[in-house]
Write a structure and sequence with these properties.
Blueprint: E1 16-21, H1 27-34, H2 54-57, E2 60-64, H3 75-85, H4 91-101, H5 113-127, E3 131-135, H6 143-156, E4 161-165, H7 169-172, E5 178-182, E6 187-190, H8 191-197, E7 198-203, H9 205-215, E8 219-224, E9 229-234, H10 240-249, E10 253-256, H11 259-268
Parallel strand pairs: 1-4, 1-5, 2-3, 3-4
Antiparallel strand pairs: 5-6, 7-9, 7-10, 8-9
Helix pairs in contact: 3-5, 4-5, 9-10
Length: 269
């Protein structure tokens, strides 16, 4: 993990959390710490230090592109390993998802990248673990199977705690309850609070300058075009209405941004 400032966050149980940040910022490392694979300082999972802690690891699974299964084993043998490893393993669920993803029952090494993603996700769901950590879980999935992934995600929500590391917020934001952003200034919180507090204001440059001068709020990004200037403003925690009021008063246009745009702006600010 890069020299990211100390994190202070809590991921509530039973919710679905998005883990986001630039490449190399430490998302996979954090997931591995949560899964008990790496030592950590101060991290607690189920109230305990997770590293090499059997009580935590029996309730947790991490799957994703950087956590592959065994290449030399076929799908059925991998499922048998799952049955031995987790008392909560649900083979009926695994079989159901193999059919849903149309996954060929063959050696893991011969599966395509998308099929390996599907297999990892099936493994995570069938494990029955209370904490399901998914690292870029749908890389390589085609449109049809990506929809299967999202349908299954929806079915699993509320039955366990899910943490998803992703670069594709536009696709998954409707399935997330909170965001944990790893950046120079880490951020975590409910999605609606974040989206409601990041506002884009656009209009004539001079009027936009006046509005920004009055508001004295952080400007996360600004761009200019022949038609208008546009600024993305951090109005947290409770100044979004002030931004909308100032925009209206000065003939500017104000609107909420998408989660993806908000996270990108916050991550680069």
């Amino acid at each position: 993990m890069k020299n990211t400032p100390a994190l202070n966050f809590e991921l509530a149980q039973g919710l679905t959390h998005g883990l986001v940040g630039a490449n190399g910022v430490g998302k996979t490392t954090l997931l591995r710490m949560m899964a008990g694979q790496f030592p950590s300082m101060g991290l607690r999972v189920f109230g305990e230090e997770p590293f090499d802690n059997q009580r935590v690891m029996d309730r947790t699974i991490l799957m994703g592109i950087d956590n592959p299964l065994f290449d030399g084993w076929n799908v059925k043998k991998l499922f048998r390993i799952g049955q031995v490893r987790w008392k909560t393993w649900n083979q009926d669920r695994a079989d159901e998802l193999v059919d849903a993803f149309e996954l060929p029952v063959q050696n893991y090494s011969s599966l395509s990248r998308g099929q390996k993603s599907a297999m990892g996700f099936i493994f995570a769901v069938a494990s029955g673990c209370e904490l399901m950590l998914l690292d870029e879980p749908y890389l390589g999935l085609d449109v049809q199977r990506r929809q299967v992934f999202f349908d299954v995600m929806r079915e699993e929500q509320g039955t366990r705690t899910i943490v998803v590391s992703t670069h594709h917020l536009s696709e998954i934001e409707g399935y997330l309850d909170t965001i944990l952003l790893l950046s120079d200034e880490p951020l975590s919180g409910p999605i609606d609070e974040i989206v409601d507090s990041i506002v884009a204001v656009s209009g004539h440059a001079s009027q936009l300058d006046r509005a920004l001068g009055r508001l004295q709020l952080p400007v996360l990004a600004r761009e200019s075009s022949t038609l208008a200037d546009r600024a993305i403003i951090d109005a947290r925690p409770k100044f979004a209405q002030c931004v909308f009021d100032q925009a209206k008063d000065l003939g500017l246009r104000a609107q909420e941004v998408t989660l993806e745009e908000a996270v990108l702006a916050l991550g680069e600010a």
